[in-house]
Design brief:
globular, six-stranded mixed beta sheet, Hypothetical Protein Tm841, Chain: A,domain 3, 2 domains, alpha/beta, Rossmann fold
C-alpha cells in the first residue's frame, strides 16, 4: 500500500526535505496586478522582498485552485499511489483546504484524505514531514493521522520581524505605528496562535528580540530534547547563521540544523529580515 503525501507551499519546507520524502506541494499564488506567480517556483522570498521594496507595491496571495490540486492528485495516482493524504494550511487563513476538498470529489472511488492542519508554516511542515515518514514506514492512514495531530501539539515557532513596513502596506498596522517602531527599533516577536502567525511580544532591538526567542525556546523545551528543529528566515541567510550560533550557546542543539525560508505566501506579511526558530519536542 503506497500513500502519497501532498501539501501546499505554506509549509515553509525546504526542497531537501520535499525531495527526501517525495512530498508533492501545490503552490500558493502571488499576484502583482494581473501577473500571477507560483510561490517557490516562480518567486522566492528574496525576489518578493526586492520587488516590493523597489516598486512600493504589495502583492496579494491566493489559494491554489481545485484544478491545481486535482492535477497533483492525478500525478500521484499515475505514479503508483494507492491512497493520498493531503495536509493543508489552516482553513482559518486560506481557502486552500476547501480547494483540496473540492478536487478530491473529482476522484470517486479513490481514497483521498484531506486534512486541515489548523496551523501554518513549520507548524504545518512538521506535520507533513511526520506523515511522509510514517507513510514510507508502511503505516496506514488512520495511524498516520493520529500521529501527525500529536506533532501539532508539540510544535513551537518564534520569530522576530525586522520591519513593520509590509504589515503597514497591507493595513494590518498603521503607517505611523510602523514608522515609530522603526525609529524605536522595535522588533515584534511572532508565534503560531489559532492557526495564524500572531504577535506575541514587542521587544526593542534585534539583539534583545533574538535573546527573548532563545529564552522562549529554552522555556518551551522545558528540560527535554528537540525532536526536530529548523531555523526560519526571510531573505536573511547571514542573519539566520548568526541566530543559530547564539541559539547554540543557550540550548543543546543537533549537529545540523536545517534552514528554510518562510516562503512568499507568508513572507508577504513579514517582510525581509525575519528570523526565527521552529521546533518539535520529543514526546
Amino acid at each position: 500500500m503506497t500513500i502519497a503525501i501532498i501539501s501546499d507551499t505554506d509549509t515553509s519546507l525546504p526542497q531537501e526535505s520535499l525531495d527526501k520524502y517525495d512530498i508533492r506541494q501545490v503552490s500558493i499564488t502571488i499576484h502583482f496586478g494581473d501577473e500571477i506567480l507560483k510561490a517557490c517556483s516562480d518567486i522566492i522570498d528574496k525576489d518578493l522582498v526586492e520587488r516590493v521594496n523597489r516598486d512600493g507595491v504589495l502583492p496579494t496571495t491566493a489559494a491554489p485552485s481545485p484544478g491545481d490540486f486535482s492535477g497533483t492528485y492525478q500525478e500521484a495516482f499515475d505514479q503508483g499511489a494507492d491512497e493520498i493524504i493531503c495536509l493543508t494550511v489552516s482553513a482559518g487563513v486560506s481557502a486552500t483546504y476547501q480547494s483540496a476538498l473540492t478536487a478530491a470529489e473529482l476522484f470517486p472511488g479513490k481514497k483521498i484524505t484531506v486534512v486541515d492542519t489548523e496551523t501554518i508554516s513549520m507548524g504545518q511542515g512538521f506535520m507533513v514531514l511526520k506523515a511522509a515518514e510514517l507513510a514510507r514506514a508502511g503505516k496506514n492512514t488512520q495511524d498516520i493521522l493520529a500521529e501527525v495531530r500529536k506533532v501539532r501539539e508539540r510544535t513551537h515557532l518564534f520569530g522576530a520581524l525586522d520591519t513593520l513596513k509590509f504589515m503597514a502596506m497591507s493595513g494590518r498596522v498603521g503607517s505611523l505605528s510602523a514608522e515609530m517602531a522603526a525609529l524605536m527599533s522595535i522588533k515584534p516577536i511572532l508565534t503560531i496562535k489559532d492557526g495564524k502567525l500572531e504577535l506575541l511580544e514587542k521587544v526593542r532591538t534585534r539583539k534583545k528580540a533574538w535573546a527573548r526567542i532563545h529564552d522562549l525556546t529554552v522555556e518551551h523545551l522545558d528540560g527535554g530534547e528537540f525532536e526536530s528543529i529548523f531555523i526560519l528566515h526571510v531573505a536573511a541567510s547571514q542573519a539566520a547563521d548568526e541566530f543559530e550560533q547564539l541559539l547554540r550557546e543557550v540550548v543543546p542543539c543537533p549537529v545540523y540544523i536545517p534552514k528554510t525560508e518562510l516562503t512568499p505566501g507568508l513572507s508577504v506579511h513579514t517582510g525581509g529580515g525575519f528570523v526565527g526558530v521552529a521546533f518539535t519536542t520529543k514526546p
